Amino acid sequence: NPGEELNVTVKTNWLLPLMSVLFIGAVVIIARVYSTTNLVIRKKVSFVNAKGGEFALKVSLLLSAKNYVEGVNVTDRLPPLIKVYERFGSEKPKRVNERERKIEWEFDKLEKGETRVLSYIVYSKIGIIGKFALPTAAAVYERNGKIHEAESNMAFFVAEQRKGDVEY
Fold it and tell me: How many CB atoms lie within 10 A of CB 63?
């Protein structure tokens, strides 16, 4: 009708578009970092039955070379209260330093697509109940004359109390 006035106010919620742009950006950054990594290290841990009833774990490091790398030095740190069993898998470590609590392997080169499995067993006289975390392993290598670093994932083991361990 003549003389009537209509006002429309529109408000836009920018939270959803902003969150989707940030999510897409994070996915792109993670994909770029993963694709530029020349050496991938994955750490796995599994329980081992020990003769003396000790707590023992088998730790495996899987090295996968996406490209040719040389001068590879892999270092794995050990948490306190555990000891390293003196036998190792197929790849023997270069150094086992009990005082600094680390194990080191050295390789001259890894070809593109080559995979190496490094394994060792750790044990403890003290039984562990709950979540047991092993720190990340690190590798320093050379590619096209430049020094690069790579880190593994943290490995976790969840230990439960056995029926024989329960005291009443």
Answer: 25
pTM, two decimals, is 0.69
Q: What are the Cα distances from residue 114, in Å, to 15, 24, 38, 66, 142?
A: 45, 32, 11, 8, 16
CB-CB neighbours of 126 under 10 Å: 8
* Ranges of the chain whose pLDDT falls below 70: 53, 127-130, 159-168
- Token readout for 148 is 């690069």
* CA separation for the pair 26, 134 (Å, rounded): 27
- pLDDT recorded at residue 20: 95
The whole-angstrom distance between residue 16's C-alpha and the CA centroid of its chain comes to 33
Q: Which amino acid, one-letter code, is at 162?
A: R
DSSP 153: P
What is the CB neighbour count within 10 angstroms for residue 80?
Answer: 6
